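WARN retry 2 of 3 for item q-0093 after timeout on previous attempt; input resubmitted unchanged.
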Amino acid sequence: MQVYRNRIQGVLLLLPTLVVSLAFFYWPAWKTIQLSRVRTIGGVQKIPNGWDHFTTLATSGSFQYSVLMSFVFAFIVVAGSMLIGLYLSYLIYRVSAGQTIYLVAAIFTYALSFAVTANIMDVLFNPTVGLFKEALTVATQAVGIQFAFDFTTNPLWAWIFATGATMWKMIGYNVIFMMAALSGIPESINETARIDGVGSFQLVTKVYIPMISPTLAFLAIVNTVNAFFLPFPVIQEISGGPSNTLNILIYDIWMTYNNSVIGLASAKSLVLFAIIGLLTAGQLYLSDRFAHYGGPEMASEQGQTTQQAGQLIDLSVVKQRLRQQPALHLSLIGSLVVLALPVIMTVLMSTQPSTEISSSTLAGIGSEGLSNYQRVLFEANFATYLVNSLIMALAIAVGKVGIALLAALALVYYDLPFKRLILLFILFTLALPVPVRIVPMYEIMVSLNWENSMLGLVVPYFASATSVLLLRQHFRSISDSMVESAKIDGVGPLKFLVYVLIPMSKSMIAGLFTIAFIWGWNQYLWPLIIINDQSKQVLQVGLAQLNPTAGEALWGLIMAGAVITLLIPMVLMLALREPLLDTVSMQTK
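OK item q-0093 returned
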């Protein structure tokens, strides 16, 4: 409903989002196109090269391998993480007691970064001291199988290691969305299925999957997009695998950029952009086709769902229900223990002396816990990294949500021309992740003197197409009578935002803040590039630097660093899980 007709005012509200999108998304993308047509020597532009880089790529067997392996890698991790996520979501949805506890245990990997995942899995599967590697070796030898569980020499195991680590990280994200979708299934469907004696397999394949298919399609596309560039720390951790067998596109771009072949790196980035652009177009098509803008009824439904998810159940009721569904609970507990085992082992290893970490000595909490954490905080500079990460994540979260609120207000309540075109302009930034615009972004930061600064870290992330889309969707669901009352009373736009929209959107804003904070906290590639001063570095990069490429690794310190790095986003996610689920529920409607 259009309440305000001052178009200049509406444009001013949109301006922060439009300026950030133009300056840090579209302009760098355009500069990437220009750089792709230049041959560089030592990182300095020298000779115009036309479209020769693209001709080279079209005939390059190694580049074709990178593109093909990127699709193979994405297919494996998306299919695997979604199947596991669906299995866990189904079990959690079906249990009638302890659902909240199970849900929290299933989604914790969402709060972890790929950098933390890479370090945890590297230590646990390390060819020298890896506890999981040793356990697998003993198990296979017991049945007469000889297999080299060494990702530095065995290409097959390198693939299993990298795809397995990425799947593990992505499970929590999938469970959040799947549980939100399953919670929207009417209870009458379940009652009918129980009366008809429908088996679990048929119930999942014939009822649940068709009913949540829009969410599954959305997840398939988003996970595929993410799989093309987010697992970079995992691939970097094993240096692309033996014989570069895991030289997927994002790692190939990084290595080309690192070798100062800027023009060719830019051309490769544009290929990545084309792939992500097509996938993003599919995501937007599905979002637009299946979006539902409800009224108060929908808000009430969502509130009830969240309230039920967070309710504490009487212990006597819990005991009774546990006895009624023993198989489901045993399956869930076993599955979630396996899922949580890497983090449990990480905490235990963080308390051990680095020289004594092995399967024979790791029987519980060690004697070096306090010492390891003190050393990593103060000797390895993690206290400084922690403060920097906290400032960066808070600034990104506040910036994203703040300017998204202004943009959504303008798009919903102002009489603006070309609204759909403006929305598409904002949404298309989803197709421009950092790897696509990495080279010109760095040049922009240098020209603004923002290199090695907090401004350079956070401002490029302020524009958030997802936040604008969800807030716009939420504002459109607010009762028309509320809007009419504000219009009659002559309430100004900022007062309307502060005193009406924000109070009615607290859960949505808290959910978006949680998502933005975790996203900002977990950033790795951009801080790695833009920050050279160690006093201004963040935890994700500091953790990667703690694990040396050569020499003796201090395993206890590495694991203590991993625990420090994962702690704050995990606590935040647990504390704000209900608004987070509310926000995701809105996205699945």
